[in-house]
Amino acid sequence: MDYDALLHEVAAQVRPLAGQGQVSRYIPALVAVEEDGFGIAVADVDGEVHGVGDWEAPFSIQSISKTFSLALALALDGEGIWRRVGREPSGDPFNSLVQLEYENGIPRNPFINAGALVVTDRLQTLTGDAGAAVLGFLRAESGNPSVAPDQDVADSEAAHGDRNAALAHFMASYGNLENPVPVVLEHYFRQCAIAMSCRDLALAGGFLARRGVRNDGSRILTVSETKRVNAVMLTCGTYDAAGDFAYRVGLPGKSGVGGGILAIVPGRCALCVWSPRLDSYGNSVAGVAALDRFTTLTGWSVF
Ligand code: DON
């Protein structure tokens, strides 16, 4: 496969869409990004990486971090996490409170904010430092030791974090947190504030394309656990737009409000696209379009 030619064709087709949609405004520090930026990278299962556009520019990974915290919690604790969080699409926005009360403090899935807070809480118990566990894994898999949280983004999110704090306190009232709310929030904000490029994230997602094998050849997840993470990405990774994402792209994918999307072609490659303007669901407009073009041109959807 001539990845360079393919990515150039994808970029040429969707670049005009990078001016559509709105940059996320509820985390003030995120507004300071290059609003019309666009980059895309592909890392194949052998770790060879190609990219075009702003593919080496760091951006805030935000909810894409939830993929890695889930993988680490599964690796360390097996299926136990599913007693505290479900794996059904929510059909609600990623920061919604309403469903939690109907469902007794058990979040629908690990990718809405409430579910990710539960996963971070578990990882904190298992490792003693959930933020450092996620960061260490991302540095190792991307091969980039300079990957780090952006402290301004973490502080900004904490200063405007009333909704996440509400979700965490609500779950605590149902006994679904093991650690104090401020500790869980701090580690969650720190993992969301990690800055990485499309190149870094495509490489870091490689273990999901290699059916659980890390870039050093060691195994982090079983084949079956990897299938499960990919399945939850497909059904829940783009929130209440997951149905449309599966329809258009047909790959496991995880978006973030920083404008990134990580997508996996099992057995073949991991892709990351970034463009910060979002649709009303919080997914990158040009990013979804680029993945749509990619799977249409290659025929590499999972369907
Ligand atoms: O907790 C939040 O609201 C953000 N740190 C992450 C949200 C997010 O990325 C949702 N993704 N589309």
Which terms summarize this structure?
303 residues, alpha+beta, 5-stranded antiparallel beta sheet, 3-stranded antiparallel beta sheet, 45% helix, globular, binds 6-diazenyl-5-OXO-L-norleucine
Description:
There is one protein chain. 45% of the residues lie in helices and 12% in strands. The protein is built from 13 helices and ten strands. It has helices spanning 3-14, 65-77, 98-102, 113-127, 130-142, 151-159, 162-173, 181-192, 198-204, 206-209, 223-236, 242-248, 285-298; strands spanning 22-23, 39-44, 49-53, 59-60, 148-149, 194-196, 253-255, 260-265, 269-274, 277-278. It is globular. With 303 residues, it is of the alpha+beta class. The model has no long low-confidence stretch (mean pLDDT 96). Helix 2 runs antiparallel to helix 11. The two termini are 20 Å apart. The strands form three sheets. The chain has a five-stranded antiparallel β-sheet with strand order 3-2-9-8-7, sandwiched between helices. A three-stranded antiparallel β-sheet has the order 4-6-5. The protein has a two-stranded antiparallel sheet with strand order 1-10.
